[in-house]
Amino acid sequence: MTPVAVSFYVLSETKAQGLLGFVCSLTQTVIEKSDLALIILSDDSAQLSQIDDALWDFEATSFIPHQIIDDRETSENSHANTATTSKNLLPRVLLSQALPNGFLGAVINLTPKALILNSETSLQNSASQNSNPSRILELVLPDDQSTVLGRQKYQSYQQQGCKLQHFKV
Questions:
Q1: What is each CA distance from 166 to 38, 52, 140, in whole angstroms?
Q2: Which H or E run contains 9?
Q3: 36 near 105, Cβ under 8 Å?
Q4: Which of 113, 120, 143, 145 is most exposed by smallest CB count within 10 Å?
Q5: Helix axes 19-33, 45-57, angle to 10 degrees
Q6: Overall fold of domain 5-168
Q7: How far apart are CA 127 and CA 160, in angstroms?
Q8: CA dist 23 to 2, 53, 72, 105, 164, Å?
Q9: Distance (Å, rounded) from C-alpha 82 to C-alpha 58?
Q10: pLDDT, tens digit, for every residue of 51-76?
Q11: Where are the domains of the chain?
Q12: Tens digit of pLDDT for each residue in 13-38?
């Protein structure tokens, strides 16, 4: 099994102030440089709504097709790795509070916890929902709480055998 690539983006004060813009830029980079479907994961529905608005207004010359999906759609969707369901065609970028079953794409994880990945040695939990994304992107803001959470996530991914890297932006 290939280890999951996890990238930590340690944001400067300036980047953190423009967090929505950074999420939009990161989203655009992922869809331009890969064929992966992308989930922006947040446990805060207000934040997802703000990201939704920001993606619509991000750049006047480009468009990032996206859709907010709810818990019913994520639990029903067992083949989200291609961002399609049997009922309809979803865009490559999805915003959700839960990771869809069977998701194999990239995840921008804005939740306070690391994702628990499937492996022979790890226990299943409701957060992973039998999903193993191929890439996880974590954002660390320049404050004490975010730094502590980032370190906890880093340790969790390290224990799960992920390929870790970090970038200061």
A1: 19, 26, 10
A2: strand 5-10
A3: yes
A4: 120
A5: 70
A6: Rossmann fold (3.40.50)
A7: 15
A8: 26, 12, 25, 17, 20
A9: 24
A10: 999 998 887 777 788 999 976 555 45
A11: 5-168
A12: 999 999 999 999 999 999 999 999 99
